[in-house]
Amino acid sequence: MIKQPSHLLAAALLAALAFGAQAQQTQLNAPKNRVTDEAIHADLSGYEATQGRIQALNDGGRPVRDYHLSKAQCWLDVSFHEYTRNDRSAFPQEALTESEKLIVGMEQGVEPLPTDTPLVNNAARVREDLWKRFAALHGTPGFVCAQQAVACGEVELVHAGNEYNQQQWRHAKPYIQIAEDWVSDAESLARTCGVAPAGLAAAAPVEPVLTANVLFEFDRSGPKDIRAYSITSLDRELGRLQQEGLVLTRVELVGHADRLQGRGHDYNQALSEKRAQTVRALLQARGVDAGVIEYTFKGDSEQVQTCEGVKPGPTLKECLIPNRRVEVRLHAQPQAGAR
């Protein structure tokens, strides 16, 4: 082990202390004090000043799509969003602090900056499948084009987890849908990332695999039992094939069920298979060749949302809907002559 000179250790300690102090410099008024024009004006001024620091970093040459600049902006956005919705929890302050931590690091030229995404205000970690899809993009050649979408999608998952803790799935759902859009955008940007910005090495092409989840109502498996917004998501991914000049080569379908009939239960196995078959027929009706479609089913063995602590009843059934899914993976390759 190599020892550093004491004066270097002291300098590092002072820098760390300075970093922490500056990261905490914007303090919102306590919720109970947000009742006067003066208090609200002071908080809004703090938000405006933080936005100005982000703009200054961009003016100084840091691109808008940079992962850390994007993440600082998105933390600021969700903080301000919840502040204006009169969120009385610690979320607005803690999200704002995360934004400022990144801002300070960028201002001071800290390298490397952290890429973790804290679950501020003890937010629930919802939709583990989306977390994994974002994580899979970090470190890939296509990340250079997808970094803004990844950063904001990760923040929106924390936003959703905070809403889930406060008001359960019904209030978390809009932000999860935003995160789903971000991950689809991120994967698309990574796939089509052929040329890096000036000064960076060219990114190698990423294997084109488009992903969507088709969601079903509780204990149902027919085409009329599919949530409309998940059909929209599937159609969006099918539309990307033409937009990105791709030819579909293989489709993987994986059927799932939620846990309410009991893990490993034969009933859930059969239900997950029926759902996969329904989506197979749905794709065929949209012109997908039956010969490229394959499916498997896993019953309730892979839950992406646990909904711990939610009482049995309609709220629990709604909370568990991400588990009542058919995963759709569209494997493709560029059309002959496509760039």
From TrEMBL:
InterPro entries on file: OmpA-like, OmpA-like_sf
Which CDD domains does the UniProt record give? OmpA_C-like
Indicate whether Membrane appears among the record's keywords. yes
- Keyword Cell membrane among UniProt keywords: no
A GO CC annotation recorded here is: membrane
Q: Which domain of life is it from?
A: Bacteria
Identify one Pfam family in the record.
Answer: OmpA
Q: Where is the signal peptide?
A: 1-23
OmpA-like domain residues are: 203-334
Q: Which UniProt keywords apply?
A: Membrane, Signal
Could you tell me which SUPFAM superfamilies the record lists for this protein?
Answer: OmpA-like
Q: By what name is this protein known?
A: Outer membrane protein OmpA
